[in-house]
């Protein structure tokens, strides 16, 4: 086959593959095969400049960046649809249509209303020559180069239609592409887009088509102007568009009556989240073109169609201020104070802004016009600003450094989105903290759950953990729904909790990062609350598994005067502050030492050796590093021994190891 024929074959195959992928949504060849054909075509075209063509699938390039967009006058106005919100409005539309036509029944076609932006695509002799935005309906902007890089826009029709042909449809951004785009932007430090429509609209207006390409826009055609007489209905027009190579939305339904149309609307309002693109309603159109013509147009809206709009999920309004509340777990939550705006029948005045990092990464400023989303029962949230509407008076928000409820220090560990109040007795957190204090893994106070915690805090009976121990049966009995018997049991349970020991108390205090395991290690190594509260980060990190984050968190906890006061009050109430369980001898020479075991030991298994070391406060690890103190080499020790020698780490044999253990267990008094 000569190069010319091969080029034609490849182009036809690639065009067909694109059509099956973008239009029929039924790809028939694998990506790899496609890439291979594309590569071959590129090679032949490079070697034979005379075979190059603007219409080759290799040439889905836009155009050189331009300074601005040229105006394009639409030959027929790009109309918009009148809105209908209620069932009554849809019925009224149907009645008017039937009355004007003098028909007892009129057939409709229902299409999804894609939430993107309308464009007009002009073809000459089957070749894409010009594309424009809707603009004001009469004059739009020329964006041919940008439309050329959208894979669903056919550069050449599947039929060589003589003369001019104009298709219209919607450019949009898939939700999945939108999320990926925002992820990329986040990684590059660029602000996120508030919604797919804004991202699509901005993408189509890039002066450099390469930037448009990066947005991964998509396209659905829904009509063409001046249909030939052979095509008598909208339904047939959609079929024709598909045959010509345009992507057409598959969710279309003929409706013999308005009731069927209403059912289609309801179905898709329910199912809209199943789609990978946003729809904002359903377009109900009179199917027959001759009827459409007789009905005509008033102002901008055709009388033969109506847009049934779904309940709105978002609106634009002014962000008047940001307040900060403290959640039950101590998180500082920024809340938007909005100029009141109605979304889907409800007036919204407040919305969440999640956290400080969210505000910063979305570049949201006080005074901005912002997009607010409210979907279903979910709390309304601010998704982003409309930067184009900025006046320069907007202010950047900073999280307070003191808790707005109790005035304690606020901490936001590096790499975390949430700032937190550091005070364990902060009234905002108290209910949750009290419940946790009393939970089974902590102080195990049976009967003190959610409800009672709420009541105690709300009634002002408990302001800090220690207040619990001052409560008597009478006080409890005065609370709602608590009988005398349960009150007595509770008093007993509270008294019994005084003897739980340091581990449980540490768990109960709710120090960040200090869960059951860490609490047990800290209690084992430090023995008393006094010693733990005096420990600096370095000595904390000498304990097994305590890294810099945990150490910093423990330090921060004890550095708060309020927390020290709360602990003192607990001690005064008689709560035990020492650990009684097994402890390493206080002067164990092996405490904090790092061991690596290698090879086989004759007198004990590796697990036994590990346990013996851990009981003495030493740590074991599987790999040798500069931090290793000793490598214990048993029989047939291998690469670890080698590595120890390279690093100059002392190696000991089994006998020396056993002696070390014995000595550490019964230290010679100093
Ligand atoms: S028909 C005269 N069909 O919604 C009819 N429009 O105000 C013109 N849209 O500007 C539009 N999906 O951008 C039609 N299946 C669909 C549509 C659709 C989205 C947009 C279009 C138009 C607006 C209607």
Describe the structure.
With 670 residues, this protein is an alpha+beta fold. The protein has 5 domains: 57 residues, Helix hairpin bin (Helix Hairpins); 239 residues, 2-Layer Sandwich (D-amino Acid Aminotransferase, Chain A, domain 1), CATH 3.30.470.30; 83 residues, OB fold (Dihydrolipoamide Acetyltransferase, E2P); 151 residues, 5' to 3' exonuclease, C-terminal subdomain (DNA polymerase, domain 1, Orthogonal Bundle); 72 residues, BRCT domain (Rossmann fold). Helix content is 37%, strand content 19%. The chain has 24 helices and 24 strands. The strands form 7 sheets. It has a 5-stranded mixed beta sheet. It has a 5-stranded antiparallel beta sheet with strand order 16-15-14-17-18, with no helix packed on it. Helix 1 packs antiparallel against helix 2, helix 12 runs antiparallel to helix 13 and helix 12 runs antiparallel to helix 16. It is extended, with a radius of gyration of 36 Å. The protein starts with a helix and ends in a 5-residue tail after the last helix. The site of 2-(butylsulfanyl)adenosine (IVH) has 14 residues, from strand 3 and strand 13. 2-(butylsulfanyl)adenosine binds next to strand 3 and strand 13.
